Amino acid sequence: MGSELKYLAVLAITVVALLHSTAAQETHVVGDKFGWLVPPGGHYAYEVWAAEQKFSVGDILEFNFTTGDQDVAKVTKEAFDSCNSTSPIELKTTGPANFTLDTIGEYYFIGTKDRHCELGQKIAINVTAHSGSPTPSPSPKPSPTPRGPVTYVVGDQFGWIVPLGGELAYSAWAYGKTFYVGDTLVFNFINGTQDVAVVTKAAFDNCTTNNTVAVFTNSPVNIILNSTGEHYFTSTYSRHCELGQKLEINVTAKSTGTATSPSSPTTPSSLAPSAHSPAASGPYNSAPSMINGSGYFVSFLLVALAFFH
Ligand SMILES: *[C@@H]1O[C@H](CO)[C@@H](O)[C@H](O)[C@H]1NC(C)=O
Ligand SMILES: *[C@@H]1O[C@H](CO)[C@@H](O)[C@H](O)[C@H]1NC(C)=O
Ligand SMILES: *[C@@H]1O[C@H](CO)[C@@H](O)[C@H](O)[C@H]1NC(C)=O
Ligand SMILES: *[C@@H]1O[C@H](CO)[C@@H](O)[C@H](O)[C@H]1NC(C)=O
Ligand SMILES: *[C@@H]1O[C@H](CO)[C@@H](O)[C@H](O)[C@H]1NC(C)=O
Ligand SMILES: *[C@@H]1O[C@H](CO)[C@@H](O)[C@H](O)[C@H]1NC(C)=O
Ligand SMILES: *[C@@H]1O[C@H](CO)[C@@H](O)[C@H](O)[C@H]1NC(C)=O
Ligand SMILES: *[C@@H]1O[C@H](CO)[C@@H](O)[C@H](O)[C@H]1NC(C)=O
Ligand SMILES: *[C@@H]1O[C@H](CO)[C@@H](O)[C@H](O)[C@H]1NC(C)=O
Ligand SMILES: *[C@@H]1O[C@H](CO)[C@@H](O)[C@H](O)[C@H]1NC(C)=O
User: Fold this and answer.
1) I need a labelling partner for 157 at 20 to 30 A (CA). Which of 20, 29, 164, 282 fits?
2) How far does the centroid of ligand 8 lie from the alpha carbon of residue 185, in Å?
3) Close Cβ partners of 54 (under 8 Å, ≥ 6 residues apart)
């Protein structure tokens, strides 16, 4: 009885939401293909992901995770900030778990297991009224607009390090980014603690870093991508490669339009103007960086949390 009422209430809310928004209800899979996990890059990953979404009343937030490994709790802002999972508003332990965004405002979610929240499994989103008119919100996907060369800072503010999350961290970073001939990769690190080794696929796969194409030791290392195809980067430092300091990217020929003048390396117009960390020096073209084995090297990458579309 009680549950029936609850069901009806949910149904009613849903119907109202649907009527309210003639536009289609959208389902946002948190972290896209990486799902809901402890992101190797820290909470930053889900921030990036959320910044690229437009949440409207009536939309569904879907947390995709393996039941038992993760859970998701809707919490207050205070609990979110302090990672307090003592008395969540709502806790869901079976994945995937859906939350319908039925009101305008801010929503906060955290993972309550172990130290998951402290380690970055948390996300805050802001739901706005459904914009009736199709103001194509920063349509995140590819319009093949020609663009000038772009400079990518590898690992963004984390730079080039042995990532906490293992090798998926840099594949997550690269995920969703498009690399064209003429673009530049910048590797930032502390001199004497890292280096950048350009290697072959075999050396990359095997971490046989005594066999390199080139090695650069002075930060920052700027590498202009001057040929198409796959490019492999790692480190000659002992065990750095095995621990995940490795980046594989696929460079494609410049799309159609020859970019006019190699003007400022702004973010491609096809990408959402990201509102992420102002301190970040690199263009966050897209990807949320996230990681899970399944998304590894899906051609494209962290932070966090990011794939998709
Ligand atoms: C959820 O994750 C599983 C396993 O990775 C995947 O097969 C499934 O497609 C994902 N669901 C969604 C909606 O992304
Ligand atoms: C966590 O939240 C509970 C309930 O809101 C509160 O009683 C408790 O003091 C909080 N713990 C911390 C460490 O803030
Ligand atoms: C979550 O929402 C998606 C999209 O509407 C739906 O396909 C899926 O079945 C829902 N999952 C659950 C557990 O309700
Ligand atoms: C959410 O959006 C409202 C209205 O646009 C804004 O006032 C508020 O600061 C936003 N909150 C966050 C956390 O961004
Ligand atoms: C290294 O990679 C090559 C080519 O991929 C492979 O044939 C070889 O067995 C690998 N060596 C080791 C030690 O894994
Ligand atoms: C690199 O080291 C491996 C063993 O660690 C060895 O088999 C291989 O011959 C070495 N390659 C070069 C070019 O020295
Ligand atoms: C690394 O060393 C090079 C050459 O000595 C120097 O130009 C550069 O500023 C150093 N970078 C950092 C981050 O210390
Ligand atoms: C491509 O770049 C590498 C190093 O960045 C350089 O050694 C090589 O000569 C360049 N090739 C061409 C064709 O410019
Ligand atoms: C990654 O996804 C696979 C399924 O594709 C799942 O079995 C695994 O537990 C996930 N890893 C993490 C860390 O969530
Ligand atoms: C790299 O891109 C080319 C052309 O788009 C494609 O044929 C190739 O399969 C890609 N390689 C990888 C590893 O994704």
Assistant:
1) 29
2) 13
3) 128, 137, 138
Measuring from atom 12 of ligand 9, which residue has the nearest CA? 292
Residue 84 alpha carbon, nearest atom of ligand 2: 1
Exposed/middle/buried for residue 164 (C-beta within 10 Å: 0-12, 13-18, 19+):
middle
Q: Residue 208 CA: which ligand is closest?
A: 6
Which pLDDT belongs to residue 81?
96
From 80, 103, 106, mutation site for ligand 4 pocket: most ligand atoms within 8 A of C-beta: 106
Enumerate residues 6+ apart whose C-beta is below 8 A from 181.
Answer: 225, 226, 227, 228, 251, 252, 253, 254
User: Phi, psi (5° rounding) for residue 10?
Assistant: -65, -45
Q: Which residues line ligand 10 (CB under 6 A)?
A: 230, 250, 252, 299
Question: In whole angstroms, what is the distance from residue 287 CA to residue 284 CA?
Answer: 7
CA distance 93 to 61: 15
What distance in Å separates the CA atoms of residue 299 and residue 309, rounded to the nearest whole number?
Answer: 13
What's the whole-model pTM score? Answer: 0.47
Looking at the predicted structure, is the pLDDT value of residue 268 above 70? no
Whose CA is closest to atom 14 on ligand 10? 299
**Which has the closest alpha carbon to 215: 233, 196, 202, 200?**
196
**Which tens digit of pLDDT belongs to each residue from 192-204?**
999 999 999 999 9
